[in-house]
Amino acid sequence: MSETAANQLPPLAVNLQYVKDLSFEVPGAPGIYASLRSQPQVSINLDVQVKRIEETPNIWEVTLAIRAEAIETPAANGDDSAKPRNVFLAELAYAGIFTLTGIAPENVEPVLLIECPRLLFPYARNILADITRESGFPPVLLQPIDFVALWQARRAQATANA
Predict the structure, then answer these.
(1) Apex CA 29: angle with CA 23 and CA 31, to 5°?
(2) Is the dihedral of CA 98, 101, 103, 105 positive or negative?
(3) What pTM did the predictor assign?
(4) Which of 11, 21, 60, 89 lies 20 to 30 A from 100 at CA?
(5) The CATH number of the domain where 110 resides is what?
(6) In a structure prediction context, what are the per-residue pLDDT tens digits for the chain, which is 162 residues long?
């Protein structure tokens, strides 16, 4: 590729987006549908994973790993002596293949851990909302994620561990 052609390429290109893994479980089905008395509490865990595609140095796979676990608390179902019940568990790995061109080495990490997940997030959010709604529950609507803060926390943790 000529230098002129390389200069015309965008610094960040989305080659492909896809569902890498999707799991949805309702451990108490079908009984949970009849006995659920209130909106369950949903806890969300989100992680960003980055992997270089081996064949080429500037192509990366970025994966948003989202886990949503819904639990009905004992107080919500009126029985303070009961244990919390699992309502559903959703796990989604939504990935994209990205090409980075002409990005300074010190900027590669923030692009991969901030900008790439920011591009993937709306699609992953829709998939999670759709799967929970189609499974008979209120849709789980993720609030916007501050990927800059997430990246900074990850760097601070890595520094503390070092």
Answers:
(1) 160
(2) positive
(3) 0.86
(4) 21
(5) 3.10.420.10
(6) 445 554 577 899 999 999 999 999 999 899 889 888 888 999 999 999 999 997 778 999 999 999 999 999 876 555 555 688 899 999 999 999 999 999 999 999 999 999 999 999 999 999 999 999 999 999 999 999 999 999 999 888 888 887
The tally of domains found in the chain comes to: 1
Residue ranges making up the domain that contains 23: 9-161
Tokens 């002596």 identify what position? 81
Contact assessment for residue 102 and residue 57, using Cβ atoms and an 8 Å cutoff: no
CB 50 within 8 A of CB 120: no
